Amino acid sequence: MAPTIELDGLEVQLGGRTILRSLTGVLDGRAIGLLGPNGAGKSTLINTILGFHTPSEGSVRVLGLDSRRDGKALRALVGYMPETDAFIAKMSGVRFVQYMAELSGLPTDQAMERAHEAFVYVGLGEARYRMVGTYSLGMKQLTKLAQAIAHGLRLLILDEPTNGLDPPARKRLLELICEIREASDICLLLSSHLLRDVEETCDQVLILRDGRIASICNLAEERRTKRKFLEMETCGAEPAFASALQGLGCECALFGNGRMKVVLPDAVEIRDVYKVAAERGVQIRRMNQRRDSLEDIFLNAMEQSGGSNGRI
Amino acid sequence: MAVYKRRYRPYHGPLTPERSRFLVLTRYAFAGLFRSRVFVLLFVLALVPTLFFAAYIFLANNSAVQQFLQFHVAGGFAVENKFFFTLTMIQTQLAFLLNCWVCPTLVAGDLVNGALPLFLSRPFSRPEYVLGKCAVIALLLSVVTWVPGLILFSLQAGLAEGGWTWSHLWMVVPIVCCSAVWISMLSLISLAVSAWVKLRIVATGVIFCAFLVPAGLGAIFNTILGTYWGSLLNFSELFRLILVKGFRLESELVGRAGLPQVPLFAAWIMMILVCVLSLYILDARLQAREVVRG
To answer: Is the CB of B8 less than 8 angstroms away from the CB of A184?
Structure first.
């Protein structure tokens, strides 16, 4: 089976500037997150996949189809939820989705049925006969999702789907995205500034910086391999405590004033740490348990790719 | 109300042929237009002159009615090329007014709230988008221009005697072709302006200006420099020139005030240039994503 996205030396120039530079890589996850600071080229990559921009060099293949050569065939397999407003104000919600479904090739009666289904599915069933122009921001986001999933898609592209949503609406939208991923064989490409959104929905991440690939990482694998660690503040025989923990197989780093960081192997539990501390007469005054998060992965990628200002 | 399962399933059913998919745009546009009372009123008004012309044909071919109503027209009623020239001229001007109302509603609604990327993210291209919108204008303006022309021609052919049909059959070509030329130019200019301006009301005004302002400038140019090349900026006059040639009325109309003296080939070149410029603007404005240069 063809990978979801293959980038082969992709370069895109817009308005005389090079936006994407020699992107090469294979993304074979079911749900791919697209991360990067502002201006990194996330939206440009999505637009290139959709054929809105033509690569100046190289190519991008989606589900085995070249974005330039097989543009129409590719777009027939894609559902797209853009970041910005995209609706026809003087059209009822359900008619708008039906219209979009018909443009994707569905016969009129099927398009109408799918539009109603999609509207009910995203939770806007009661508002489907209202003009889209009268919808709230959250409802417009859901309408954009409904039009993106009404036809027979294989890849759902979501550009900043939770922009401007309040926490319950954001939660609901992310649940819907996860449901769509689980309930079908649809692949996801989700571009977001919110690391948590990507962490909750994706199993692979492409991190861009200045139009280059900063990192491609498999989140599921990272979650498995990333070790848990403790940040502690202690009082007492610190070196002896550290060497005792090392005896259990832990890695310790001391920062002075009782502060230490301990990387725990899988076999060691926190209660073992407390036990050792009690045996050595060490007080544990603060303990913070962490795992490497997507934020760490992201910040690492930003730093490794040439700068420490890679904040989003 | 139907009950739907709240579980997502992708669509796996049949699809419509790709070639005819642009007609979806046309169908939805017509549905939207006929919901507007203003449009329906304009559309009906645009067809009213045809009724008067039909009545004229009936009167011209019915001597009993002429006697009954005691009509005495010097030289008699003539339904010849000048009759159809006048009909086409009036109907194309009404088509222009109708187009000024319709065209901005077709494009502005899609552009003003950024719906265009949704169209173009489907198996649907920009030329198909333009084709779908042009089809709306072409069908609509056809109903107002050459279709009534052909209906009246058929009416006259049915009522006239003595081989009128065969001796005047050539008029079918200018009725259809000249109207088609006007419709093509009108639709491209109006779509380009609508795509550029985006706001419906403003677009309507700008379409008017696109026809009236260059015509005025051309007239000023002609007056000041004592030339006729300024008439190239008057699209209505260019069309009138083509229509005059089409209906073989040169001998009757050449030399009259208001008739442009520009050569026919210059009129054609100007109209083609305007269409090419409109296509260029459409290509630049109908982008899924705007690129900021610099």
So the answer is: yes
